[in-house]
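pinned: reference chain
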Amino acid sequence: MIVSLLMMSQLPDRRRKDVGPLAQHLAAGFRYVVGHRIILILTSLVAISAFLSMPYNTLMPVVADDILRESAGNWWRSCATASMH
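pinned: its structure tokens
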């Protein structure tokens, strides 16, 4: 691994000279997504699922503490170990 890191230090410099305005790049990316139907659908699905799961991820610890009380610790441990398998 150390040899690989040392070899990477000898790579040529590939910095961009002129990047251009950020708003122009964002607009071009937006036009690309809107112009390709599959990418638009997939991006929309990811955005909707992220938006709808936000309240669940935010409120679940509160629900676990208020409703489960003593067993909340056991429930969180079982979730953590289930995700490891």
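why pinned: The chain has four helices and no strands. The first helix runs from residue 2 to 8.
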